[in-house]
Specification:
The chain is mainly alpha-helical. 52% of the residues lie in helices and 10% in strands. A 3-stranded antiparallel sheet has the order 3-5-4. Strands 1-2 form a two-stranded antiparallel ribbon. A hairpin with a 2-residue loop joins strand 4 and strand 5. The C terminus is likely disordered.
């Protein structure tokens, strides 16, 4: 978590210009769901989309498929989705490690709990969705993730690097 990036065995993949990156962020926020073109247009431009918004979104999707793979960004019905089988998301790793840490604590193993929670905090590389702080489509997810991190203790607020 931190700056938006896509990484595979070959290294980092370009996610393109800011609005194209915002499209990826919107799909990550709604991972596992089909996000309609209308909803993506609203996320990218709000109440003032250009007349060519549908074509622009289609162009972004085409470019992202070239960068990420056609099997990663799929068409579902009248929208698009990231294939959650082919993609791993830092947010899911973080939440899984937090859940494991809480289970270990409930099972009476504070050392294992602390280890899992430290692993979860290490997933963080900076503020969640920082480049989308002022984008309304990201506000809910940013608040949710910051609250989740705050409950564990944010290493960035103490000036310690998480990774």
């Amino acid at each position: 978590m931190g700056p938006l990036e896509a990484v595979d065995h070959g290294g980092a993949r370009s996610l393109g210009a800011p609005r194209q990156r915002a499209l990826v962020a919107a799909l990550i926020i709604h991972r596992g769901q089909s996000v309609s073109t209308d909803r993506l247009i609203d996320a990218l431009w709000g109440e003032r989309p250009p007349a060519s918004a549908i074509k622009i979104v289609q162009g972004y999707v085409s470019s992202l498929r070239k960068a990420l793979g056609a099997d990663v960004l799929v068409t579902r019905g009248r929208g698009y989705a990231l294939d959650t089988v082919r993609c791993r998301f830092d947010v899911e790793r973080f939440e899984s490690l937090v859940a494991e840490g809480r289970r270990a604590l409930a099972d009476g193993d504070p050392a294992a709990s602390a280890a899992r929670l430290r692993e979860g905090l290490a997933v963080w590389r900076g503020p969640p969705l920082a480049e989308f702080t002022y984008e309304p489509f990201a506000h809910g997810e940013i608040a949710r993730l910051e609250a989740r991190l705050g409950a564990l203790g944010d290493p960035h607020r103490r000036g310690t690097a998480a990774r």
